[in-house]
Amino acid sequence: MTTKGSKAKGKQRSPAKATGRTREATKPDAGKNETKPDLGAVRAQIDGIDRQIQDLIKQRANWAQQVGKAKGKLAAAVDYYRPEREAQVLRRVVDRNDGPLNDEVLVRLFREIMSACLAQQEPLKIGFLGPEGTHSQQAVYKHFGHSIHGLPLASIEEVFQEVEAGHADFGVVPVENSTQGTIQSTLDMFLTSGLRICGEVELRVHQHLLSRAGRLEDIERVYAHPQSFAQCKAWLRQYLPKAEKIPVSSNADGAKRARNADDAAAIAGISAATVYGLKSLAGPIEDRPDNTTRFLVLGRELFPPSGNDRTSLLVFIKDQPGALYHVLAPFAKHGLSMNRIESRPGHTGLWQYAFFIDIAGHAQEEAMHRALAEVADFAQEVKVLGSYPVAIS
Asked: Which of 61, 173, 234, 267 has the most CB atoms in a 10 Å sphere around its CB?
């Protein structure tokens, strides 16, 4: 059983990388006597492959339409979307990949193909913490592709509300950062919301100092979300120790304000520079190079297993000795690993607490089903917030 702070992701380094040798350095000294390829012939080969790729994409789009017909007449685009199926497709892309393009590039390409094919029915409407240019918007595109209709909203609470009301098909909200911990406002919304978690996104967050001015020494005040200030505090202390730090609701909101004066700057992702016409004076400026934010995808229903899933629970415990032990013991008993646990005031009474728990596995799997039944015997209330595919790194 692991705790939140002990999560480790990514592929193991190869022996060549571990010893500092590059892949090129290990190749034999070949190619000295090779004939120089004819540029025109190479380009002709590429053009032919491009035609084949385009034809195959057309075929895939046509078959995607057949999937829609096989499902029959459904109410809206959201009824055609299946996150577990997309996760399975993308995992196969990673499993098949043997280069030269890396996994991230190929996953992004296939994500966009699937996004475009699904949008033939109708583009999904995705709510996110706005305005445009936020990391939340980047997380939307990473998970759903660009063939969607994005709905930038003013707050995390509004994202929940728009999905609950059916004005958005899904919502994307931040839930935790690898260096600054949990976004408490997101967890608190689950105490009263009936929405389900149906996906997660892990986004490597790179912060930049953006301004319409061209010189760092001109900056007298900096706008940013409090989380971003915390992620960049060492850099700010070294390079802008006297600048005023002004917290705002989102980094994109800070970028909007910074574009109005030469002595102002904002901390935001590089995409905000394009949206708001700013220059990057420095970046990346986050204190940790592995700075990553995890986002949750909000929906209105649970989806079937994908084969590599996570289940998020909200558990209200009874006030008795060993209560938390009795809640967690069934997961260990049935061989289920706990990925994360977080406590929050339960809003059910003074000094009453609820626990948010992430467990490896899907609620429909037999081991999880048995464990949850045992947990219910000791807990005051157990709520399955969602079972969803683990983020594809």
From this structure: 267
